[in-house]
Amino acid sequence: MTEIPTPSSPMESLLAVLDLSDAAGAHTDEEIFVGISQRQPAQRVFGGQVLAQSLIAAIRTVDSDRPVHSMHGYFLRPGDANQPITFGVQRLRDGRSFSARRTHAYQNGVPILSMIASFQVADAGIEHQSRMPEGMPDPESLPSAAELLDGFDHPVARSWATERPFDIRHVDGAIYLQVEGEQVAHQAVWIKTVGAMPEDPNLHRAALAYASDYTLLEPSLRPHGISWITRGLSIASLDHAMWWHRPVKVDEWLLYVTESPSASGARGLNTGKIFNRSGQLVASVAQEGMIRIPQEQLAGQ
């Protein structure tokens, strides 16, 4: 098994996982890339990581004048955070304005994620957008995860508090240890990287895909009073869709507004809008997740 290096800071870790290597000499109908995995307390690959890496792999095969505008992915198997990941990209189409790529992320010879992404030459057209919610507190006035989890001695808490490359600040109260604030099926968080990012806009797009997976399932948990440490909670992302609308910089504060329109059948659907601080809608996301809790707790809902 290839040894996974340990970067010295969260930002180094983020940039390291986005720096895929070409698998020179590989003979296949796919273009092959290899990426490292971030170590995780639960030993499972973080979904946002493999999404971002799959996107970077696809980007490597597309002309630079065609930025990504959408991706749709399915999480097929849990990934092992102690192993690297191989990415195979198929060129599905290169048209006059649009390109499409399919990326499979592999471990042990089987896919853990399947994704199709679409890319477009910059073009002019009609414009409108949803309005950014008004009255949001400034992110500087809200506590960070490190402040909320200070003194909580647990590997997962330490990971959330100090090892993530993104600063995440909940507007309506976090649900790390308990559900703070109203038990409603919507929330807002401010997010940005904990350090400066390179100027490459593709890295910013991929990093936003990475971060979009952090809190997207929380609106399904919040109305039921379910925190991340609820005993017996089993949760996993099933799929993830994302649309990039406008240029984005992830090392500047972004407001991530999410809601859960439905939960049933041990699944919760969640949608999100991401605004920059000027009020521009830069991206939209959707994800369904598996959410299971013990039957005795279900009976009390």
Brief descriptors of the model:
301 residues; alpha+beta; Thiol Ester Dehydrase, Chain A; 2 domains; 13-stranded antiparallel sheet; 7 helices; 34% strand
Topology, element by element:
Blueprint: H1 10-17, E1 21-22, E2 31-35, H2 47-59, E3 68-75, E4 85-94, E5 98-107, E6 110-120, H3 145-148, H4 155-163, E7 166-170, E8 186-193, H5 201-212, H6 218-221, E9 234-237, E10 239-244, E11 254-264, E12 267-276, E13 281-292, H7 295-299
Antiparallel strand pairs: 1-2, 2-4, 3-6, 3-10, 4-5, 5-6, 7-8, 8-11, 9-13, 10-13, 11-12, 12-13
Helix pairs in contact: 2-5
Question: How would you characterize this protein structure?
Answer:
There is one protein chain. The protein is of the alpha+beta class and 301 residues long. It has 2 domains: 1-122, Roll (Thiol Ester Dehydrase, Chain A), CATH 3.10.129; 139-301, Thiol Ester Dehydrase, Chain A, CATH 3.10.129.10. It has 7 helices and 13 strands. Strands 1, 2, 3, 4, 5, 6, 7, 8, 9, 10, 11, 12 and 13 form a 13-stranded antiparallel β-sheet that branches. The longest helix has 13 residues, at 47-59.
